[in-house]
Each structure stands twice: as structure tokens, then as C-alpha cells.
Specification:
globular, Aminopeptidase
Length: about 160
């Protein structure tokens, strides 16, 4: 399958497909955790933010096209922080904001192709580290990231705090 997959930068012609994928991704995560809002409620604003952020931070939105059909996308950019406790190369890293493969294309290793292409784009910008986050319960995504050579870096814990009032 990977031979017939094309990875390329998104264009304005991809907006409807990107929006559809954002809805899909949001709904998938919504099934995993109650903190996620409905996909249709956030899709337009999120896509606009994603496009703006990718451009502003030296990144890109990549799309995967399989046999002429939109199969998914990945978005990422360069993040720069000022953590006194971390090394300089750790304070400037490539951040993978979003990765979504539409249901009919999952299991074909397209996510790995998108991650590799995004890594290449961000490496050209001089980053030496790539980071992303996922919901803890998103086992399929975690397996994909493991296969792509990513390893857990920080783990965020959460507890729902009940008000005392």
C-alpha cells in the first residue's frame, strides 16, 4: 500500500478533507475521553488555528493521498520553550500537533509515512527532537508512535477534583 501513497503539503483544495479529518479525529478522541468537544463544534475554528500556527511556527500540514483519495493528514511545527531545567536542544523541538488517518485507511502504515515526512521537514529546520502527545487510552496511536521510534518523554496525570462547596 505504501507505494501508492503520496505525502505532500496541504493546499487550499484540501480544506474540506482536512475539516472532515479533524471532525473524525475529534470524535475518535471524544469516545476515549469526556473532555473532548464535538468535532463539528470545533472543526472550522481548529482548522483555521492549525493553518495559522503551522505557518507562523515554521511548520507544515501534510496530507496523505492513497490511490488518488485523501487518506489523512499530519501537522507540526517548531516549538521553542525556555525551560531552565532542560538542555538547549530540548527547548527547541519539532511538535506534531495532529495526526489522523481516516478509518478506511487505518492499519496500512500511512501514519508512519506522514510522521517520517513531517520529521524530515522539521529536521530541515534544525530540530533534533520530535515530540507529540496522545490520550493515554489511545492504544492504536501509541502503537503507531512506538513503531515510528518515538518513546514516552513526559506523562501527564489527571484527577477530576470535586468542588467542596
Amino acid at each position: 500500500m505504501s507505494n501508492s501513497v503520496i505525502i505532500r503539503p496541504a493546499t487550499s483544495a484540501d480544506r474540506a478533507d482536512l475539516r472532515r479529518a479533524i471532525v473524525e479525529l475529534q470524535e475518535h478522541e471524544r469516545r476515549l475521553h469526556a473532555t473532548r468537544r464535538p468535532g463539528e463544534a470545533i472543526a472550522d475554528a481548529y482548522l483555521a488555528w492549525l493553518e495559522e500556527r503551522a505557518v507562523a511556527a515554521g511548520g507544515v500540514i501534510l496530507v496523505a493521498v492513497a490511490a488518488g483519495e485523501f487518506a489523512g493528514f499530519a501537522a507540526g511545527w517548531v516549538e521553542e520553550t525556555e525551560s531552565i531545567a532542560e538542555t538547549p536542544d530540548s527547548n527547541r523541538f519539532g511538535y506534531v500537533s495532529d495526526l489522523c488517518i481516516l478509518p478506511g485507511y487505518r492499519g496500512r502504515r500511512i501514519a508512519g509515512l506522514l510522521l517520517a515526512a513531517l520529521e524530515n521537514v522539521l529536521a530541515a529546520a534544525g530540530i533534533t527532537r520530535l515530540r507529540l502527545s496522545t490520550l493515554a487510552m489511545n492504544d492504536a496511536a501509541r502503537r503507531t508512535y512506538d513503531r515510528a521510534g518515538l518513546a514516552p518523554y513526559e506523562i501527564v496525570y489527571e484527577k477530576l477534583v470535586r468542588g467542596s462547596s
